[in-house]
Amino acid sequence: MAERQYDWATIAKNPKFIELHHKKTAFLFGWWIFSTAYYFLLPIGAAYAPGLFKIKIIGVINFGYVFALSQFFVSWGLALYYAHIANKDFDRMTRELINELHL
Amino acid sequence: MTFKKIIIAASLVLTVAAAAFAEEPKNTSAAAGAPITAAAPTSSTEVAAVSPAAQAPVAAAPVKKRELKANKVVTLSMFAVIIGITLGVVIWAARQTKTAADFYAAGGGITGTQNGWAIAGDYMSAASFLGISGLISLYGYDGFMYSVGWLVAYITVLLIVAEPCRNAGKYTLGDILSFRTDPKPVRALAAVSTVAVSTFYLTAQMVGAGKLMALLVGVPYKTAIIGVGILMVGYVVFGGMTATTWVQIIKAGLLMSGAALLSVLVLAKAGFNPIYFFDTIVNSPDIQDHVSKLVLKDGITLNGIDAGQRFLEPGLFLKSPLDQISLGMALVLGTAGMPHILMRFFTVPTAQAARKSVIIAMFIIGTFYVLTTLLGFGAAVNLTPQGIISVDPGGNMATLMLAQQLGADIAPIMGDLFLAFLCSVAFATILAVVSGLVLAASAAIAHDIWVNVIKDGHADQHEQVMAARITSLVVGVVGILIGLMAEKANVAHLVALAFAVAASGNLPVVVLSLFWRKFNTAGVISGLLVGTIASIGLVMVSPNMTYPMKVAAGAKNVVVAMEKKQAELPAGQILSEKDAKALAKAKVDEKLTGTSMMGLEKPLFTLKNPGIISIPLGFIAAILGCLLFPNKRAEEMFDEVYVRQNTGLGMAKAVDH
Question: More exposed terminus of chain B, fewer Cβ within 10 Å: N or C?
Answer without folding.
Answer: N
